[in-house]
Design brief:
heterodimer, A: mainly alpha, Four Helix Bundle (Hemerythrin (Met), subunit A), B: about 425 residues, Tick-borne Encephalitis virus Glycoprotein, domain 1, five-stranded antiparallel β-sheet, 8 helices, elongated
């Protein structure tokens, strides 16, 4: 089976509808056993639909669909919801399921509004067995940081309303530590690949520089937390870090020297 | 009782002032002696500098209960150093960085080192301070090893080794591009002034090959006058990148749309030659991609059929399909899918190696790595030379060891999360 951007709306719309309904059902006050079951069923149907599209799209392109901005958004929407769903199941945060469903729907919406053209070409420099793990591990890290950011916003609001929430903070810590592990691993794979492709493992390419900046910002958070800080500084650190992450993901073309970058999506 | 500034134990205010002091010292050095000259760290100077660094760290560990040392190895200074390096990184991201300074009299921004941040004194000094702070923290913990500290140790030790190898090894690294003509042997590289540098490796280029993707089709508006030309409304400005629409030739998906036209790919020949008005499949090196297209106007229903070809390197092979008065359908130049050089590499005093150099598939010869770098892009697959980059990096192994240790640390972070409080 092969599918392209032309068929995307027919899969993306039902999938995101499933996710949003699952999120809303999970957040209802009175939850019957049937509705808990429906949340799982709807989440999984959405995940299967999305995964099927990516697999069929991959087949149609004859290359991994990880090259363009729209393609990375596709994976991000899936992983963001997946991360939200796993944390909902593991830690029972229904609001996180809803928030990640909304965020995933937003990323899918951008893809629906900005369709990309069919393109099978891929630069020789991208043709490496490291391409898929490098990008996918990064997207997983981005998804975990995305979920942590949503949780941090909720924590900020809750603190304004009714004081602190230690449980939520330690949940955020956990996501950030796991996310940072993925981020570091993605960066290291990138360094190994850079040595194979460009001759050096670190070249201060604009994307590398912003990756360093993003990593450094999350390191600040991790160290502040290990020092035992709990005030709102740490939440703002997280929000700034995620802003830097988004800048690195979508804003690479804005940076100086971007035209030299091999990381430019188009 | 509130603590006064510079009263032990120190914290963030002292760290901020200390880091600002280092940066200021760096800027003053930058203004007086110019950029940090990495050539100063050439072997064996980098080993001496490394010995000094290790000496400082040993001294730090010897006096680890001293309040000053505890502060140097502590979180407030670490966080402040990270923030300072982050800010330098952010500055680099926003302004163009130069590989080397132009010879004319520099402006104040250049003199402060902001056009080459990574070799400016403030950056180098902060990098050095990071190595000291990180080194003391790491080895202090390393010496009283506990299994609970394994994640901490992998992350910090790996990073320290990587930063040391990258920093101290920078001076010993050599990167040059050698151009070899097909059928010839080369062992020299030339700088801009035409001076030759002889390398301990000779390369014979036996053959250069390239495969290409099926190209894109696009519609050209014959009447569009670029607005940047004289008389245009953006006269004198830079030509904006045209937002051209493309149709990807993909035999698996013959139907598509381009502007107001429905496009059908009737026939596609990846390597073809033109004979009269027709194209025939032919694998000869000068061949070009060619496509027989039917285009139907979605508004008027008008249909056009004909051959379209980029022509490759032979102007006579070019064809376009006129659609209406203003528009023609043309084929863009194909993009490279794979290019490679069949070479014989002969290291000085070694045995020759026959191999194929390809993007993402470099070849190691001793401490040298040889890469497929470029080719004559105007000739594409007909290029009669190939550029190969030769990289000498004796500090690569330790850097890789550092990265390996960091990878274990990253895995443990993913595995444990914050599971064990102290072990990060």
């Amino acid at each position: 089976m092969s599918l392209s951007w032309n068929e995307f709306p027919f899969i993306a719309l039902p999938a995101t509808l499933c996710w949003l309904t699952a999120g809303l059902l999970a957040c209802r006050r009175a939850r019957s056993p049937q509705s808990v079951y429906a949340v799982d069923a709807l989440s999984l149907v959405g995940i299967i639909l999305f995964t099927t599209f990516i697999a069929a799209f991959w087949n149609a392109l004859s290359r991994p669909p990880l090259r363009t901005m729209g393609e990375t958004r596709l994976w991000y929407a899936l992983f963001l919801f997946l991360a939200g769903y796993i944390t909902y199941r593991r830690w029972n945060y229904p609001w996180l399921l809803l928030l990640s469903a909304i965020a995933a729907a937003a990323f899918t919406g951008v893809n629906l509004l900005k369709p990309e053209i069919h393109s099978i070409a891929m630069k020789p420099a991208l043709q490496s067995f490291l391409f898929i793990p490098h990008v996918i591990i990064y997207i997983i890290a981005y998804a975990l940081f995305g979920v942590a950011t949503l949780a941090a916003c909720v924590l900020l609001v809750r603190r304004r309303q009714n004081g602190n929430n230690h449980e939520l903070l330690s949940f955020i810590d956990n996501l950030i530590h796991i996310g940072f592990g993925f981020l570091a691993f993605g960066l290291l794979l990138g360094a190994v690949w850079a040595k194979e492709a460009w001759g050096h493992y670190w070249a201060w390419d604009p994307k590398e520089t912003i990756a360093f900046i993003t990593g450094a910002a999350y390191l600040v958070y991790i160290h502040l937390r290990h020092q035992g800080r709990e005030d709102n500084t740490i939440i703002w650190t997280l929000l700034v870090a995620f802003l830097l992450l988004l800048l690195g993901w979508f804003g690479t073309t804005l940076f100086a020297d971007a035209d030299r970058s091999v990381h430019l999506y188009y | 009782m509130t603590r006064k500034l510079w009263q032990y134990p120190w914290g963030y205010p002292e760290a901020a002032l200390f880091v600002a002091g280092i940066a200021l010292t760096g800027f003053l050095l930058q203004l007086t002696v110019g950029h940090f000259d990495f050539a100063l760290l050439h072997h064996p100077a980098n080993f001496i500098a490394l010995a000094v660094l290790v000496g400082l760290i040993t001294l730090g560990i010897r006096f680890q209960s001293n309040l000053l040392v505890r502060w140097i190895a502590g979180i407030p200074l670490a966080v402040t150093l990270i923030v300072a390096l982050l800010l330098f990184g952010f500055y680099m991201e926003l302004t163009p960085q130069l590989p080397r300074l132009p010879p004319q009299t520099p402006d104040i921004v250049s003199r402060l080192g902001f056009r080459m941040v990574t070799s400016s004194w403030p950056f180098v000094l902060l990098y050095g301070m990071t190595l000291i702070s990180l080194g003391i923290t790491t080895f202090k913990r390393f010496l009283r090893f506990s299994r609970r500290d394994i994640t901490f140790l992998c992350n910090h030790l790996g990073l320290w080794i990587l930063l040391v190898s990258a920093g101290f090894g920078a001076a010993d690294m050599v990167r040059v591009v050698m151009h070899v003509n097909v059928g010839e042997t080369e062992w020299r590289v030339f700088n801009k002034d035409g001076e030759a540098l002889e390398l301990p490796i000779a390369i014979t280029l036996k053959k250069f090959t390239m495969e290409e993707y099926p190209p894109n089709l696009t519609i050209i508006d014959r009447q569009a006058v670029p607005q940047t030309q004289p008389g245009g409304k953006d006269e004198g400005k830079n030509e904006p990148k045209p937002k051209q629409k493309f149709f990807q030739i993909d035999p698996k998906r013959p139907d598509g749309q381009l502007g107001d036209w429905a496009i059908t790919l009737d026939k596609y020949l990846h390597t073809a030659v033109r004979i009269g008005g027709e194209y025939r499949a032919n694998p000869m090196p000068e061949s070009t991609p060619a496509a027989k297209i039917t285009a139907r106007n979605l508004i008027t229903g008008e249909t056009k059929t004909g051959w379209v070809s980029s022509g490759g390197n032979i102007p006579e092979f070019f064809s376009s399909l006129p659609l209406d008065d203003g528009h023609i359908l043309t084929m863009a130049q194909p993009e490279p899918k794979r290019y490679a050089s069949d070479v014989t590499i002969l290291p000085k005093g070694g045995t020759s190696i026959n191999t194929t150099l390809e993007v993402n598939k470099p070849v190691s010869v001793g401490n040298w790595m040889i890469y497929q770098y470029d080719y004559d892009t105007t000739l594409g697959k007909m290029s009669n030379w190939s550029g190969m980059e030769l990289v000498f990096d004796p500090w690569l192994r330790p850097a890789q060891i550092g990265m390996g240790i960091m990878a274990i640390g990253a895995f443990l972070l993913v595995w444990n999360g914050t599971g064990r409080r102290r072990s990060i």
